[in-house]
Amino acid sequence: MQQRVLNLRPHHLYCENFMDAAFPERGPQFAEASNKVRQMLRSGSNFSVSITEGVDDLCQFCSHNRENRCNHPDGDEEQVGKWDALILRELSFPFGRRITIEELRTSIKDIHPLRLCRGKCRYSKNGLCSALAVTTREIRENHQLADGARG
pLDDT digits over 38-54, tens only? Predict the structure, then answer.
């Protein structure tokens, strides 16, 4: 059986593990795709992730994706690219690398929470993300992120 590859940019790779918020303004297709990505990341299904620079498999369904670029009012492609670079630097993976879910979980356990979460992320500040609520200890004790993210 061939392993499925999910193409995700760094903020989706990291943040979708902790987000439970819905984004209805991004459209129903985005909501469905986002839920599917979250389930895949949390379940540890038989797939790997290719770390993508720019628009990814989830962005394809977002109403803010115009001409294959993020045009979100809170951060356009350039700003989102900066967030992605900061996240990737902390995760210690390069763009283009293909990783397993286990590699992702190990990296997250080693560095959680990110500096971006603690300082600049509006989703963390507004309580839409559980990244700051989940302690590093909980992540280490609950080998799967899904268990810690719900705690």
Answer: 988 888 767 899 999 99
